[in-house]
């Protein structure tokens, strides 16, 4: 029994977080174990019915459903994850059409989370999808993230990553941070193309430890747009222009993140 919300509740599940990930379900809990759907036969041949069953009972949050996050969401739904929580405050614009999975011209102006949910529901009736068109730092979002077995961070700003890093550490929830970057020289030539993932668990380095997060950069993100533009023109901060991106790179980063999840199962 655990004491929660001024009352005693029965424990239905214990999660073990570390080099691997394990959910132990209490035998007398109300969880009904469903048979593995035959559509997942090829996956079952990889990690067995027990592994597939674990996937089907997972709740996974994805923060940021642009090019990278939408690819993560679609892949997780296709492998049979039981519930997805999609978090993104932004709406679709034309530049998103080249990277956001399932998007069409008619989706421009709609919330990204709704566009991705609609696409997932077109091929997966069993995966539950909850959407929050909210900033991840809002008080009503964090309790939802805490319900998750694992959180994917697919945001393009450091402020959101800092929030997710704190949640992961404070609540022992594994965080898979997914990112990609194309860095160009001043003359326009490409200097570096990078896709990377970072797993944060109690026994690994956090995003601060690896210098993924930077306090000065986070402060700059909090400035008003006109302040950012002024400082960029004066050379004090990097340009506020949108970063270059392409679907082949965002999809590769997403696949690396999903494969990292499967290593934990």
Automatic annotation (TrEMBL):
Leader peptide range in chain numbering: none
GO biological process: cyclic threonylcarbamoyladenosine biosynthetic process
A Gene Ontology molecular function term of the record: ubiquitin-like modifier activating enzyme activity
Residue span, THIF-type NAD/FAD binding fold domain: 40-263
UniProt cross-references to InterPro entries, sorted A to Z: ThiF/MoeB/HesA, ThiF_NAD_FAD-bd, Ubiquitin-activating_enz
Name of the protein in its database record: UBA/THIF-type NAD/FAD binding protein
Organism of derivation: mine drainage metagenome
């Amino acid at each position: 029994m655990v004491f929660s919300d001024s009352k005693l509740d029965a424990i239905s599940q214990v999660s073990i977080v570390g080099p691997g990930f394990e959910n132990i379900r209490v035998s007398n809990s109300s969880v009904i174990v469903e048979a593995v759907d035959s559509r997942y036969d090829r996956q079952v041949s990889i990690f067995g019915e027990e592994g597939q069953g674990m996937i089907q009972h997972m709740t996974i949050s994805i923060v940021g459903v642009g090019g990278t996050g939408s690819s993560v969401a679609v892949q997780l739904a296709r492998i049979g994850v039981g519930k997805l929580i999609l978090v993104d405050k932004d709406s679709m614009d034309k530049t998103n059409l080249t990277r956001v999975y399932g998007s069409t011209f008619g989706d421009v102006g709609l919330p990204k989370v709704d566009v991705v949910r609609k696409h997932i529901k077109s091929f997966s009736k069993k995966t539950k999808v909850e959407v929050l068109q909210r900033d991840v730092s809002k008080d009503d979002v964090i309790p939802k993230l805490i319900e998750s077995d694992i959180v994917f961070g697919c945001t393009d700003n450091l402020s959101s990553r800092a929030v997710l890093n704190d949640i992961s550490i404070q609540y022992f929830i594994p965080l898979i941070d997914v990112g990609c970057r194309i860095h160009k020289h001043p003359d326009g030539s490409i200097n570096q193309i990078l896709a990377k993932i970072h797993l944060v668990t109690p026994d690994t380095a956090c995003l601060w430890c690896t210098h993924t997060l930077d306090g000065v950069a986070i402060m700059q993100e909090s400035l008003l747009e006109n302040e950012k533009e002024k400082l960029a023109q004066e050379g004090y901060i990097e340009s506020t222009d949108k970063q270059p991106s392409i679907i082949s790179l965002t999809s590769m980063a997403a696949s690396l993140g999903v494969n990292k999840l499967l290593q934990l199962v």
